[in-house]
Design brief:
The chain is α/β, with parallel strands linked by helices. It has an 8-stranded parallel sheet. The chain has a two-stranded antiparallel sheet with strand order 9-10.
Length: 345
Amino acid sequence: MIDAHVHLRDQGLASKETIAHGLAVAKRCGITRVFDMPNTKPVLTTREAVLDRLSLAGESVKKTRVSYHIHMGLTKDPEQIREAVATHAMLFPLVIGLKMFLGNSTGNMGIVTADEQRQVLKCLTENGYKGVLTVHAEKEALMKNELFIKGKADTHTLARPSEAETEAIKDIIAIVKETGFEGTLHIAHISARASVEEVVLAKREGVKIFMGATPHHALLSVEDAKDNPYLKVNPPLRSEADREFIFQSLLDGTIDSCESDHAPHTLEDKDNGASGLPGFPGMTLLLDRLRKAGASEERLESLFGKSVLREFALDDEDVLLPRDTLRRVKASSGEYPFDPYKGKY
């Protein structure tokens, strides 16, 4: 299985989880590749931070044989965007894609207005980026954070309504068309029927776009959150009708892939309102539920791996060691003498 959306901890967030622990759990759940997100501590918005993170992961990758890939984060700074494009070109597939938050989530990396998002897409296009741009789609202007009541996870659904997701998706699709962006747009953790329908429409119009859904949005609803204060996630759990639609859209292939959005916290953090759930076991649970609901093995292989390989233009390798890939980069270009197990040499 491939998990194209995880938030492993470590470094400044090691109290929540380490990369070593996360990859070990992923392996036990049958996951062979993970794509980490950039809202770490420190955030992964510089080449140096990315390389430090790969160095940190190296020994765990070697031990678990779980491939570790990074989405480098984007800011509004054109120089940073250029560095991100160049880093992706140099280190792909270790740097698997770029990530933009259309609204603030954990880590507050949001690029929240349509004008700011347009400038980022224009800069990516002008610099020839044709890889995957993964977006966290929630529109900041439609959030009502004052409606969240600590300890009542169901109120989070009121604070970040499904309309915020759907409108953010509409905005970014329009900007992709306007700017002539030639890369692939990936809508992460899609959670509502109206959002899925916008992506389906964009596909029919020729936009190169994919979407992934999580186990929690396919198996849990806001009704579950009424009984469990820890079920607070971004985007929130939705209505039972939305949940059922997400599940059926995975079953029939409308949604392209499953992704865990694995994001562990300490109990203290959750008590204080942190968003995110440990997600790796949910992947195996969702796989089982889809199989019991009649999904063919071909459909399951696509949802849990093959669709991601196509979307990210990956070879079907068992594992990708950072050291081996970076040495290949050095051999071909002479530009990056770096060993993620031992540091610079």
